[in-house]
Specification:
The protein is α/β, with parallel strands linked by helices. Helix content is 38%, strand content 17%. The strands form 2 sheets. The chain has a 6-stranded parallel sheet, with helices on both faces. Strands 7-8-12-9-10-11 form a 6-stranded mixed sheet, with helices on both faces.
Amino acid sequence: MPDPRALLLESFQAAVAAADPLQVVAAHLPPPHAGGRTLVVGAGKAAASMALAVERAYEGRAALEGLVVTRYAHGLPTRHIRVIEAGHPVPDEAGEQAAAEILARVQALGSDDRLVVLVSGGGSSLLSLPADGIAMADLKATTRELLRCGAPITDMNIVRKHLSRIQGGRLAQASRAPVTTLIVSDVAGDDPSAIASGPTVADPSTFGDALAILRRYGATVPAAVLQHLERGARGELAETPKPGDAVFARVDNRMIATAHGSLEAAAACFRAHGIQPVLLGDTVTGEAREVAQVYAALVREIRAYNAPFAAPVALISGGECTVTLPAGAKGARGGRCSEFLLSLVLELGGLADVHAIAADTDGIDGSEDNAGALAAPDSLARAEAAGVTARRQLDAHDAWGFFDAIGDLVVTGPTRTNVNDYRAILIV
């Protein structure tokens, strides 16, 4: 068997490669449009690589134009589809301007034209065009508050859809041209209406649902936001287009990469090295440190009794955990992957022959520039030798500091795709 650390990194690379737009986009594109214009728009962490893949697939066969918006430092050089960089996870004015241009260009299309929309994780903040009466500052404050409260992405996006002029199916509603949307899923369960807040997908949620989410998390939002949602709940504002709306008869939404597909690719990697892979699901959510406690209990059972699985075995999972920060928290560094892994390290207490990786497939875990981290049986001992206390780091939400001190950060740079978190626990 190869070195456990090398094997875990290889499995992560396999998971990311399975969702690489440059490899998967072309097979899902419609034939080149022979009639009017082909406008390509989109948003997300994978937007630039998806746009480049479209250009390569249609080269010399279709007259392309358009623009996509992606996270800062995630751009790529393109010839026909302009790439704009903007703020994530908190939206900014660059994203607002890009979204406004996208909406205007879509509204100018005719029925003989074609619209291709490229959607991937991160698109909710990158494609931010606030509704009338909502300032960008209000949207920023609401996003920060929901992040602080630990609201899961699906709940955050319900709120954002009802504060937007372009999300929740409104982009499709604005187009007279047929729409083909290619989607790279970063959402547990692959609900297309939740990915990038579903700009071309029917929205089953309501203004009332958005208000209920704010109450559930005790979120304090600007007065303009609350008033807008309350007006919508009273029926004074038009709802997002719902399932069954005639507008979606001309929309074809295609899921082209998912977390499950990436987990299967990682499983094949382990299997090739003679290790049994066990997929624990691609929809794992919850507080990162609490999820780690459950996984640690399963690992101890396997190590003690070779049940329910016998070693060597790799426990693989995806999804999106959360990290809830207390109000006024300072010094937090890292993200949900590194926090999960630090909690796992503490729970296992140096258990022999257990190695793990937790990393975000987009290459960025939370606040820093690492994708995630690696853990080994001697992680605690090495940290103590470096003068770092694991419990103190976890309580301060500074998992990055822990793994940085022992040289176990995983740094890939932007991968320009995103199918959520990847976790693998290798028991040998």
